[in-house]
């Protein structure tokens, strides 16, 4: 069974960089699929952030200038960095596996709340 | 403002059927059969219910079905049950510049 688990600081100061990691078990991330991040501000809807795959990355155009997604195949995990955060970046951040042929996420982590506040 | 438009709320009684719409444009829903639907209970991660417009993942009840007409996709839930009460989100592939867009979500209340 594929499982994903997010980890990282729950509190980040404004203007700093948000960093999260997603550990994957039950599937080797180097075997295929796209891996990425989706967020949900409190009480609001889902927003796609971006994905990484063997050949590169692709990001939400509205966040592209601040987002970096990378992968560590030796640890079977991938990471998110979001720079210059503001209160608007406060959200539950989910990592998920994206099917490349259908662009749907079939496995999700439980989510982790990141609050941007001084 | 979300790229795909969903009604904020829908409701139905147990046993009834309801349909949730998801309206996009010719750049996303209208151009690709790549609409997916997710169910999210409070405090939980989203769960995939429909993918590629009409397909159900293993384990999802056949009471859930998807369809599309033009720029609008729809999720129909038949034989409503109390456990179906949740928020539902649609998503679509939107081409190689925008990639993935979501709807704003629909809260389903089972009366």
Quick structural overview:
By secondary structure, chain A is mostly beta strands.
- The tally of helices of chain B reads 1
Overall structural class of chain A, as computed from helix and strand content, comes to mainly beta
Low-confidence stretches of chain A: none
Structural class of chain B: mainly beta
Oligomerization state: heterodimer
Mean pLDDT of chain B: 97
The most extensive interface, with participating residues per chain, is: A-B, 20 and 26 residues
N→C terminal distance of chain A = 39 Å
Helix content of chain B: under 10%
Largest sheet descriptor of chain B: 6 strands, mixed
In which range does the helix fraction of chain A lie?
under 10%
Along the chain, the helix and strand elements of chain A come as EEEEEEEEEEE
Task: Give the overall shape of chain A, derived from the CA principal axes.
Answer: globular
Radius of gyration of chain A: 13 Å
The mean pLDDT of chain A is 96
Listing every helix as H and every strand as E from the N terminus to the C terminus, the arrangement of chain B reads EEEEEEEHEE
User: Could you tell me the radius of gyration of chain B in angstroms?
Assistant: 13 Å
Q: Sketch the major β-sheet of chain A.
A: 7 strands, mixed
What form of chain B results from the Cα inertia axes?
globular
């Amino acid at each position: 069974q594929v499982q994903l688990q997010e980890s990282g600081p729950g509190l980040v100061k404004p203007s700093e960089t948000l960093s999260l990691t997603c550990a994957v078990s039950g599937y080797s991330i180097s075997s295929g699929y796209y891996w990425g991040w989706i967020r949900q501000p409190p009480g609001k809807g889902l927003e796609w952030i971006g994905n990484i795959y063997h050949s590169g990355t692709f990001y939400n155009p509205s966040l592209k200038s601040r987002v970096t997604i990378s992968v560590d195949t030796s640890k079977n995990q991938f990471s998110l960095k979001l720079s210059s955060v503001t209160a608007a970046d406060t959200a539950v951040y989910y990592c998920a596996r994206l099917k490349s042929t259908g662009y749907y996420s079939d496995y999700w982590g439980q989510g982790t709340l990141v609050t941007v506040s001084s | 403002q979300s790229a795909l438009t969903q009604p904020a709320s829908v409701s139905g009684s147990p046993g009834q059927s309801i349909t949730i719409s998801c309206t996009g444009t010719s750049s996303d829903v209208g151009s690709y059969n790549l609409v997916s639907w997710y169910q999210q209970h409070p405090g939980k991660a989203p769960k995939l219910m429909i993918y590629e417009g009409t397909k159900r993942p293993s384990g999802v009840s056949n009471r859930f079905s998807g369809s599309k007409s033009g720029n609008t996709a729809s999720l129909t839930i038949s034989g409503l049950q109390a456990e179906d009460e949740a928020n539902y989100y649609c998503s679509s592939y939107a081409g190689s510049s925008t990639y993935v867009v979501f709807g704003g979500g629909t809260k389903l209340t089972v009366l």
